[in-house]
Amino acid sequence: MHFANFDKNVLLSGGWDNNVFLWDVRTYKPIGNFYGPSICGDCIDTLEDGTILTGSYRDSNQLELWDFKTMKCRKHILWNGSENCEIACVYTTAFNNVKDGDDRLILGGCSRLNEVKLFNQRRDWLPCATIPMKSGVYSVDFANHSNLFAFGGMDKKVYLMNVRNR
């Protein structure tokens, strides 16, 4: 689940049934939904402009950007940049909370490949960094108002890193 950054009254939820629902917390009723992402873990994030990020535990199109107004997918982000990666099962995704012009970042973590990846908007969402791990990554997040990020998973450790040169 994720409270939307674009509207304090909107809560997003998703699951293995490939549905993402948007709920109005004032009425306890759905105000929209879209079909596609197979959510497994903390894989929903939003931006103030109505962009919705989803991560999926599936064989293709693991990262997607959706439009709140149309409920349509705007962009499929390929895990390996140029081709679908059939073994990256994404458990967690996040947008960075600092925006330098159009230099938005996405952070993702997965199992099977056991890695953390950074994707850069300036590079048309191509991966700009890969951090290999020994086991699955189940949680990622950026610190508020900085490019410090944290991640952790099966190895029972929390890692902190800072994005410096993008």
Descriptive notes:
- With 166 residues, this protein is mainly beta.
- 34% of the residues are buried.
- Helix content is 0%, strand content 51%.
- A hairpin with a 5-residue loop joins β13 (137-142) and β14.
- The chain has strands spanning 2-3, 10-14, 19-24, 29-35, 44-46, 51-55, 63-67, 73-77, 88-95, 105-112, 115-120, 126-132, 137-142, 148-153, 158-162.
- It has no helices and 15 strands.
- The chain has a domain at 42-64 and 72-162: YVTN repeat-like/Quinoprotein amine dehydrogenase (Methylamine Dehydrogenase, Chain H, 7 Propeller), CATH 2.130.10.10.
- The protein has a four-stranded antiparallel β-sheet, with no helix packed on it.
Question: What characteristics describe this protein?
Answer:
166 residues; mainly beta; Methylamine Dehydrogenase, Chain H; 4-stranded antiparallel β-sheet; globular
Model regions low in confidence, pLDDT < 50 over at least 5 residues: none
In sequence order, what are the helices and strands, one letter per element? EEEEEEEEEEEEEEE
Structural class: mainly beta
Query: How many distinct beta strands?
Result: 15
General shape: globular
Mean pLDDT: 92
Profile the largest sheet: 4 strands, antiparallel
Compute the separation of the termini in Å.
29 Å
For this structure, what is the CATH class of the domain at 42-64 and 72-162?
Answer: Mainly Beta
Architecture (CATH level 2) name of the domain at 42-64 and 72-162: 7 Propeller
